[in-house]
Design a protein that fits this description.
With 209 residues, this protein is an alpha+beta fold. The chain is 47% helix and 14% strand. The chain has one domain (3-89, 123-205): NADH Oxidase (3-Layer(aba) Sandwich).
């Protein structure tokens, strides 16, 4: 079955089956897909908190307008943007590039100056908005990989970000919540997963130039 066929079967699940859990291997596969998601300049200016602890998720559910997916899914992925993107962050990324590719760090000077110039040219608000956008790219990869594995993933924006930050202690980690996704398996009586998917026709969605 192709990815498109699998995406036809996915849905934004409202009712998960709490008794069905994703395996350790499946969780690792989802994390690997997120790790490989594209991001601007390759910086990955975010972190992902994988929440499975029932007590923590109960608190998050209260901060998520009591949406049952937060507690009933197998896991909750919280995509959080870094709140500080400074010169030290840029230099650390160049260190990683040099180490990963086994190249002389000095040979990356041009790339480093481009990275540092990009970071220094933006305000803190602009960099945070930029980071939020990167989390949505990673979220899309999560949704696609979940569909590939036959796992349900429900992206969610209905939550109080400040409360999520407080519950997860994100401020102290230099992070703030961007978007979340409940991951698990749909309940048999989930109404939305049985509905015909509604999408605008390609003739209205795409413009060819």
């Amino acid at each position: 079955m192709s990815l498109v066929e699998k995406l036809q079967k996915r849905a934004a699940i409202k009712k998960f089956d709490p008794s069905k859990k994703i395996s350790t291997e499946q969780l690792d596969q989802l994390q690997s897909a997120i790790q490989l998601a594209p991001s601007s300049l390759g910086l990955q200016s975010f972190k992902v908190i994988v929440v499975q602890d029932p007590e923590t998720r109960a608190k998050l559910r209260a901060a998520g307008y009591n949406q049952a997916q937060i507690t009933d899914a197998s896991a909750l992925f919280v995509f959080a943007s870094l709140t500080t993107l400074d010169e030290a962050f840029g230099k650390k990324f160049i260190d990683l590039v040099a180490d990963t590719r086994s190249v002389d760090r000095a040979s990356l000077e041009g790339f480093e100056q481009m990275i540092l110039g990009t970071l220094s040219s933006r305000t803190d608000d602009q960099k945070l908005a930029w980071s939020h956008k990167q989390t949505y790219i990673a979220l899309g990869v999560l949704v696609s990989e979940a569909a590939e594995l036959g796992i349900d993933a429900a992206p969610m924006e209905g939550f109080d970000a400040a409360q999520f930050d407080e519950i997860l202690g994100l401020k102290e980690k230099g992070l703030t919540t961007s978007v979340i996704a409940a991951v698990g398996f749909r309940a048999e009586d989930d109404v939305y997963s049985k509905m015909i998917k509604v999408r605008r026709p390609k003739s209205e969605l795409f413009i060819h130039v």
